[in-house]
Design brief:
250 residues, alpha+beta, Gyrase A, domain 2, 3-stranded mixed beta sheet, Thymidylate_synthase_ThyX, Thymidylate_synthase_ThyX_sf, Flavin-dependent thymidylate synthase, EC 2.1.1.148, transferase
Length: 250
């Protein structure tokens, strides 16, 4: 869902406010393959010869399953995947809770932020039931989505108007940004290895077949789902073993 709003600043400048529901994940760089896992594991017994070995998918699959089952995790670290994520700031902060990533995020100290803000769409479950850490998400009642979008729009328009007013008055960007909400969109480069990504996926996806089921906020789950699709494409045998052994990082 995308909604365009128009607001006028105190200086008479027209502001175009954009409300978005999409969260995007793009793989921008990588060095990741199932074979790299096998070669990293084999160096303990084959030495430098391991780098030249390729015994075929059958051997690779069997060894990866053994490593996953026995939780020999370090061979899954010798790779990387770099993603460009566009998401509201509160979702980016969820990503940063996982300290095994490397991050670079756009800075509101150095550039003026665009007036783009997050609102849920019709598929978003708007109510939760249960205790913290054990939520069940349920659909919203009649009018819930309209109320959320209306309330959010009023705040976003007011916040961005004041942000722009301070910038026009010469206030430093790093001070003016303090009025912007955490629903403001941000862009971030995020890099991790397969082992770290599997840990992230185990916590940030809702899969009842997991050894340790999790109930993540939907917005961070969308990020995780986008990353998992690329992980499964680049390292299909590793991903299949991850699925087979309860979606637990080794």
């Amino acid at each position: 869902m995308t909604i365009q709003l128009t607001e006028e600043t105190t200086a008479g400048t027209a502001l175009g406010i954009e409300l978005r529901s999409d969260i995007t994940v793009e793989l921008v760089d990588h060095s990741a393959s199932d074979l790299s896992v096998v070669r990293a594991a084999r160096v303990s017994t084959a030495g430098e010869r391991a780098q030249r070995e390729d015994k075929g998918d059958g051997y690779t699959d069997g060894l990866i399953k053994y490593l996953m089952r026995c939780r020999h995790g370090s061979p899954f670290e010798h790779n990387y995947m770099t993603f460009l994520v566009s998401a509201p700031i509160f979702t980016v902060r969820h990503m940063m809770r996982h300290r095994t990533w490397s991050f670079n995020e756009e800075s509101a100290r150095y550039r003026e932020l665009e007036p783009v803000f997050y609102v849920p769409d019709e598929q978003r479950l708007l109510r939760q039931e249960g205790k913290p850490g054990h939520y069940n998400y349920v659909p919203g009642g009649p009018g819930d989505l309209e109320n959320v979008v209306t309330s959010a729009s009023e705040v976003y328009v007011s916040a961005y108007r004041e942000y722009t007013r301070m910038l026009e008055a010469g206030i430093a960007r790093e001070i003016a940004r303090m009025v912007l909400p955490v629903a403001t969109y941000s862009s971030v480069y995020a890099t991790c290895n397969a082992r770290a990504l599997m840990h992230f996926l185990g916590l940030r996806t809702n899969r009842p077949d997991s050894a340790y089921p999790s109930s993540p906020q939907r917005e961070i789950e969308l990020v995780a789902e986008g990353m998992e699709a690329e992980f499964a494409r680049l390292m299909p045998l590793t991903h299949a073993a991850f699925e087979s052994y309860g979606r637990v990082s080794p």
